[in-house]
Amino acid sequence: MGKFEIKKDKAGKFRFNLKASNGQVILTSEAYNSKAACDNGIESVRKNSQNDKMFDKKKAKDGRPYFSLKASNGQVIGGSQMYASASSMANGIASVKKNAPKATVQDNS
Questions:
Q1: How many CB atoms lie within 10 A of CB 26?
Q2: Please, which residues have CB within 8 angstroms of residue 76's CB and are 6 or more apart in sequence?
Q3: CA–CA separation, 55 and 83 (whole Å)
Q4: What does the pLDDT read at residue 1?
Q5: What is the mean pLDDT of each run of 10 residues along the chain (109 residues)?
Q6: What is the 3-state secondary structure of the chain?
Q7: Separation of alpha carbons 92 and 80, rounded Å
Q8: What would you measure as the largest C-alpha separation in the chain, in angstroms?
Q9: Strands 104-107, 3-8: parallel, antiparallel or unpaired by DSSP?
Q10: Whole-number pLDDT of residue 27
């Protein structure tokens, strides 16, 4: 089962990573000013990850694919790593969809 890991960055902001069962980071959040906002972001990932329309597939300047996950208000909740191919990006999206709904939360802040 996947898990969300919450941490505090050097600027004192809260962030989370969604990790697959193998420990690989599959989604990294934006920065939040409070722990409560970070918790809301996790709930938003759980909800919005089940809607294909919320995944924004993009290409970096060097051509590598990646994706962002958006909330219903259009705001980006988190983003992926850069992938080597479109098929590996599709696997990353599938992993977020599979892991997010029941992922545990580990608070390392």
A1: 23
A2: 30, 56, 68, 69, 70
A3: 15
A4: 85
A5: 95 97 94 96 97 96 97 94 96 96 96
A6: CCEEEEEECCCCCEEEEEECCCCCEEEEECCECCHHHHHHHHHHHHHHCCCHHHEEEEECCCCCEEEEEECCCCCEEEECCCCCCHHHHHHHHHHHHHHCCCCEEEECC
A7: 8
A8: 36
A9: parallel
A10: 97
Dihedral sign, Cα of residue 5, residue 100, residue 38, residue 83: positive
CATH of domain 3-107: 2.30.29.80
Domain segments of the chain as ranges: 3-107
CA–CA distance, 20 with 98 (Å, rounded to integer): 9
Q: How far is CA 42 from CA 62, 83, 85, 95, in A?
A: 30, 23, 27, 16
Q: What is the pLDDT of residue 74?
A: 92
67 Cβ contact list (under 8 Å, min separation 6): 55, 56, 57, 58, 79, 80, 89, 92, 93
